């Protein structure tokens, strides 16, 4: 079996010592640059990889032409060109497949809009119900998450979240009584809490995203609606710092009780780095 | 009462069956072919591509290379190669990505030591560790 | 009149019956528990934070260690989340291999539950008998992927190794052996009056409460809710196999026991069908060496031996995830413990806690 594996690895590409002279030490983090340089035949895979490399602190966007500073310059330029061509192709293909972010979808649609999702009427109906009961501003946005099995996703404003949660649970047609997942995400400008709900009666699922800002983030707690949200909100508070107003017992659950800071935030500095 | 008697019957029946325990460590236990034990390193085959160090999930491999002393040949040869066995999780990803099979797993897993210093395996030790190599003759 | 007061008892993190480092602070009045406060976090290793810094292939060994008794299912959920976003077509042989190893892992996990639960209740022999069978499964896994507990077997696009020579015959031999042994376990335990007294009618909760708390797996099915993700939201190739899903009636511990035993039987059935239908072909799809997942987010779920294991993946198009969150079943299942323990005897505490079947590596992640 190892032989087959070796062959398979060799098929993709080999790195015959293609490291520039300066880097002889091994290190992991900053090497993403090289992984993207020597990728001439990445397109071979059955994967549409939209190489939207956003510039991050430790990775470099290789779809721009970089300053050739090392011996792999020619290869980098060729790879970058091939990558740019593929990225453009992938973008067009991606538009046909349907974007999963509403703002981007309109920007990417070059050829024709994707065919309407089968869950679109369901989503519209739910948005109408919620907006009818709580007002226009309760639902900020709504979209269908295509790769995820066409999951209808709602963006609910945090001021009306508690009433919206009650409505989602108690309304006849919605009846979302099972809380599948409660997660917090730290996007750099804002924070979000994501809920995935399921209805045992009607067997349909929905995803809900509630946005809040980064300084003093607060979201109403839904422990009174779904009892299973209790510890999850404590975990989100512990790791991300989002306060849940109305929670019966909001304190740290996974980290020690006297810990300072919220580890899962993107700007968290561990105090014992290098131990 | 009946349930208790039936249970007793099962227990007594098991008394007469063959024992399934191994007499380890008096008898060695043979591990299968694909077992993931500590690695064996062959410096001749290494081309210093750094893939193993890059793919290691815990960053336990450190290596340095230097230019080939023979001016006709390109590439590098390996200078030092260390595996920090305290944090190696024997996940086998390094052998999976090595293009020349310079690093392979062996079936040695009895590596308890009395001090932490012995757990930092350097190239010499890894090269001498050539018994029970996976896919080898033993 | 005698003066009584309540006592605070600490069922500490080091305890043989808490199945891991789990602390429970209970207030007792005589022998009755009035309040129970679980304290978790002793095994928190920051897997979710680490995952933001590792590529997808590097995360898989870390997921092994979350729910260490069923590492294959943990491997699968991460790989499945990435594959859902990438929309990769998997070869059939890889899918069948995945199903076989996941079901074998389910049997192994339930055997551990069986052994340790009965050990908590007081019986010593079932523990050894269960582990004798479990050794056979672990030997099978040792032959297949080189490790007994932390497999690191699944990759994005397939599995790492193909089966060695004679492995499928060994699996078949194991299936027939296990079926006989299951009968033996039922003889040993299920009719035992002491066992029935300790588990019938204890730790009862209703189906509505189970749904409200977000329980999953056997905890939900023992209360009467007929919900199994392998049948109702099929993933991988589970829709090609025929199997029944045991559902309990009362929601007490005895129903959980029968449900889990029956699940072992049904898993054996699935493995048998998978081995019979095993196709030829490659075990790994063509994926690039550096795996980049397209931008987007996805929540995928599957049925692990403990319940609904889910993974919420937010990707920004790079080769490392932006946010990887695991929906860990033991974490959700443990929330009902304070409610179940109110008014119970201290002696029933261990039985109820064991019945929930938690693994602390998963609770804390």
**Record field, number of beta strands of chain A:** 7
Which overall shape of chain A is indicated by the principal axes computed on the Cα atoms? globular
Portion of residues in helices of chain A? 25-40%
Gross geometry of chain B: elongated
- Architecture (CATH level 2) name of one domain in chain B: 2-Layer Sandwich
**In DSSP terms, counting alpha (H) and pi (I) runs of 4 or more, how many helices of chain B?**
4
Record field, number of beta strands of chain B:
5
Strand-residue proportion of chain A: 15-25%
Q: What is the subunit organization of this protein? A: heterotrimer
Report the average pLDDT across residues of chain B. 83
The SSE order of chain A reads HHHHHEEHEEEEHE
Keywords (chain B): 4Fe-4S, Cell membrane, Iron, Iron-sulfur, Membrane, Metal-binding, NAD, Quinone, Translocase, Ubiquinone
InterPro entries (chain B): 4Fe4S_Fe-S-bd, 4Fe4S_Fe_S_CS, NADH_quinone_OxRdtase_chainI
EC number (chain B): 7.1.1.-
Protein name (chain B): NADH-quinone oxidoreductase subunit I
